[in-house]
Design brief:
Helix content: over 70%
Mean pLDDT: 90
Structural class: mainly alpha
Order of helices and strands: HHHHHHH
Number of strands: 0
Distance between the termini: 19 Å
Strand content: under 5%
Largest sheet: none
Radius of gyration: 18 Å
Length: 159
């Protein structure tokens, strides 16, 4: 093997950081989605209703759809499948959450628990979730901008 090829195959600390970000974000999304999938859909629907952001006829549809979206996006990120598309989709998701949290805060709606992890996970205030979602939005942008993703299925599919 030529020296140039060996150098190209070496993994840098940046590559490992991108991998850690991708896996961490994937695990958070899988946990968030799964915790709501395993619970009663009515429980998540009640959490959505508290925000007063959707018409009543869309609350149950959203409560059924969003946990699966989080779960699938988390799985895609964890595996490194369609990483750029998954990163953009995740960024849009966190932007949506931030918008919803901001709107409810500005309208003076008091919400003690964001409902992000159902009853199975940690319970965060809206302000705490706004900080965490801002960080996760930033990591989504980092994943999108990353030139290389190590240990990603994309690498095998794009050969």
């Amino acid at each position: 093997m030529k020296k140039q090829e060996q150098f190209a195959q070496q993994k840098t600390s940046r590559d490992w950081l991108i991998l850690a970000i991708r896996v961490s974000l994937g695990v958070v999304l899988i946990f968030s989605g799964l915790s709501k999938i395993l619970g009663p859909v009515e429980e998540f629907a009640a959490a959505i209703e508290k925000y007063q952001a959707l018409p009543p006829n869309l609350v149950m549809i959203t409560a059924k759809f969003f946990p699966w979206l989080e779960y699938c996006l988390g799985g895609f990120l964890l595996l490194g499948y369609q990483t750029k598309i998954s990163a953009v989709s995740t960024g849009v998701l966190f932007s949506l959450f931030l918008s919803m949290f901001s709107a409810s805060t500005l309208r003076g709606i008091a919400i003690n628990d964001c409902g992000c992890f159902g009853s199975h996970g940690p319970h965060f205030s809206i302000k705490a979730m706004m900080i965490l979602d801002s960080l996760m939005l930033a990591t989504s942008v980092i994943l999108f901008l990353a030139k290389k993703h190590i240990f990603a299925i994309d690498n095998k599919l794009n050969k």
